[in-house]
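Quick one:
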Amino acid sequence: MGRVLPRHDLVHPDGRSFAVYGEFPGTLEGQPARTGHDVSGLHRRFDRLTGTWVLVSPARNTRPGGQVTGPQEAACPLCPGGPELPWPYELAVFDNRFPSLSPLAPPVTGPLVAPSVGRCQVVVYTPEHDGSLATLTPQQLTSVVAVWRDRTAALWADGHISVMVFENRGAAIGATLSHPHGQLYAFGHLPPVTAAKIAAHDAHRRDHRACLGCTLVAEDDGGDRVVVANPSFVVAVPFAARWPFEVHVRARRHGLGRLADLTDTEVVHLAQAVHDLVGRYDGLFGFELPLMMCVQEAPPPETGAALGDWHLHVEFLPPHRSADRLKVRASVETALGVFINDTSPEEGAARLAAVPGRPLSWHGVAVPSIVAGRR
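Output:
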């Protein structure tokens, strides 16, 4: 029998949901009901000039500031024994205490406003305070991808129209905690970039009678923008990269549109690609490179998307253009949406490909079967 990873589903006294993975000796009983979790001000406002929604979340201003670094487990809310996770765990996913979207979002009235219904969750990769996706063991990272698959499937099943796993790493991106973790947002409305990508996929299918995802895989594979070879994913700097060292990890298989579609072999291959790429980022300038990691899953058919044409892809967006200079999304990029890239995609790919990969043995790595534990 393969590895089994129990999942324990809990509800905090303040109303938040927790999923704790691994052997779980604890309980949320006795935890305080007043934790600062406040959704009373959540709502969204419609911008008629751009046709997009803006999320308003005043409680986020009450978040603790400053990034916890070093072996300061007692000060870190994500370490075992901390205020969020007061017991041992292997991995954990829980509702953010300071969300922008919530299933408990209050109703609102009036024109051009709507409830901010959705979900904002924290995904804790490991109980260890220090580390990153580049330093997790192969088994740990494979389990992280399996948990991504588990949690996103549940959020899609809940009827959300958009679901995204992501990580904001580093103070330059605005991360306030250094403990290895990511996030998971589920939306009740369609984000504008997703809508634009749906339109692009549909237009390509209409004009070329072909899958845009397959076209991108064929164009990127084996070219001078490839960073590292992978049997299930093309790991390459995109042709029209917006950021100097932007990389997309794109599924080769047509029909692999969501994390839930991953076979166990593809789970391992995705973990390998992520591990290798983040390690290259960290070796590029000799320090842990701040970055945004965004997992782009296929939207539901009711959005108008050709579901099969959307290949699952993970976007890595680091802001550094050199060791001591950041690419700032300034006036032209922000006000007009026109990106200016200071580095050619081919140069960025060549520099990342030249960074030595960290040799690791993936022999014996098992994708865990996630089973419901006690509630």
